[in-house]
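Lab notebook, design round three. We kept the backbone fixed and only want residue identities now. Task for the bench partner: fill in a sequence for the structure below.
Input structure tokens:
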């Protein structure tokens, strides 16, 4: 049974919801405005209707009652209140003290500024999605790891190239170590995808293309760290050791900027 006591820690949640509700008018969300309307913005019952929950449940939530809500409810509420990306993340932080599940961007937007940042970086760098699709890269990345422009767009995926293309296996001095680490890190993104069909299809195809992937994926290892060291065998430059780290690109959780720095350059 829900605990209906008001939770003092949810005062910010109450204030946020009231403010988001007040800024919307019924026509903004496809509702008809009735006569003698005193409430500025949407009424609680209107938000509840749009979110697909009962008025009592939404009222308890907005009042800061100590009830547990699901990610599904918060997603519906985000849509009902027309929250933008930052507001959606803030709602999840207030209600569940954690970020929302990742959503797959149907068309990741790499701006000219992002590409300029890549191009100005003197070492390999690229931008990937949570599914590990490579959507942008710089000239040093193409020089060391191969030009993604020569790869069909549907195959520009880090895991697919690593497990299905011998050339990528051959340039990795520690291929098995790197491959197992990649699987462990990708599993976290897979879990946050909510069984997105595109993620499921990728894993299925990888399992069919690579016995190693099928075996290691079945071990359920998870590694959430985005940093590491990668050792490369390059036909012209010889063996190179890179440190690499991943960062959210421009605050968009669907785009990660991955930077490589030669260990020798750091040490110098």
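Proposed sequence:
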């Amino acid at each position: 049974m829900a605990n209906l006591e008001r939770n003092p820690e949810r005062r910010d949640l109450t204030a946020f919801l009231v403010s988001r509700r007040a800024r919307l008018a019924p026509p903004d969300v496809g509702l008809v405005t009735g006569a003698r309307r005193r409430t500025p913005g949407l009424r609680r019952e209107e938000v509840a209707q749009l979110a697909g929950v009962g008025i009592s449940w939404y009222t308890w939530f907005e009042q800061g009652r100590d009830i547990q809500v699901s990610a599904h409810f918060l997603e519906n509420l985000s849509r009902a209140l027309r929250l933008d990306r930052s507001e959606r993340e803030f709602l999840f932080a207030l209600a569940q003290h954690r970020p929302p599940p990742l959503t797959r961007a149907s068309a990741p937007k790499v701006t000219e500024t992002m590409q300029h940042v890549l191009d100005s970086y003197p070492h390999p760098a690229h931008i990937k999605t949570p599914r590990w699709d490579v959507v942008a890269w710089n000239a040093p990345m193409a020089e060391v790891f191969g030009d993604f422009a020569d790869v069909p767009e549907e195959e520009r995926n880090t895991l697919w190239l690593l497990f299905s293309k011998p050339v990528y296996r051959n340039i990795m001095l520690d291929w098995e170590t790197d491959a197992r680490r990649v699987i462990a890190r990708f599993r976290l993104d897979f879990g946050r995808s909510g069984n997105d069909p595109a993620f499921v299809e990728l894993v299925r195809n990888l399992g069919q293309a690579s016995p190693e992937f099928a075996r290691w994926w079945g071990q359920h290892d998870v590694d959430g760290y985005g940093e590491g060291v990668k050792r490369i065998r390059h036909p012209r430059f010889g063996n190179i050791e890179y440190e690499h780290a991943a960062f959210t690109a421009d605050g968009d959780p669907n785009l990660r900027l991955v930077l490589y720095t030669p260990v020798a350059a750091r040490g110098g």
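Keep this in mind before ordering anything: The beta strands are 125-128, 134-137, 228-234, 238-249, 252-262.
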